[in-house]
User: Which sequence fits this backbone?
């Protein structure tokens, strides 16, 4: 998990970007990073206009090759999630409303996939896992509506 906090961003307020890489996952590292950045845009953790770390900074913080981050940023630019301002940096160019419903479902499916793997490894039945998901969903939804 990386906590990114740049002094250059204090004008817009400090924001934090969290990225957790699971080396043992069947999902390629670049795809894990893309999905997590999209997730943060979809949830509003990253908002339109927020500056994201440079390729070099993020690669260093995550201990991955700079080409991996370059691939991530290029893909996110193609999908209009990020935009590159030459000489100024890379910024979030879309908000959660701009991420299609199918893409948001895919993000949730990827998160649930990891939870299902954990449940299977811990011998939690489908019924138990479904009940836990429903309970957590309702509890969090209730908290957000307060």
Assistant:
């Amino acid at each position: 998990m990386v906590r990114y906090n740049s002094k250059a961003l204090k004008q817009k307020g400090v924001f934090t970007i969290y990225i957790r890489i699971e080396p043992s996952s069947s999902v390629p590292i670049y795809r894990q990073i893309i999905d997590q950045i999209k997730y943060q845009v979809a949830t509003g953790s990253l908002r339109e206009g927020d500056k994201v770390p440079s390729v070099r900074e993020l690669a260093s913080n995550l201990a991955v090759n700079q080409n991996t981050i370059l691939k991530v940023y290029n893909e996110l630019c193609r999908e209009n999630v990020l935009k590159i301002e030459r000489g100024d940096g890379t910024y979030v160019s879309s908000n959660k409303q701009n991420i299609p419903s199918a893409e948001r479902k895919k993000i949730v499916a990827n998160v649930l996939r990891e939870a299902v793997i954990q449940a299977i490894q811990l011998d939690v039945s489908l019924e138990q896992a479904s009940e836990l998901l429903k309970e957590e969903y309702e509890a969090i939804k209730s908290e957000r509506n307060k």
Strands lie at 51-52, 82-85, 89-92.
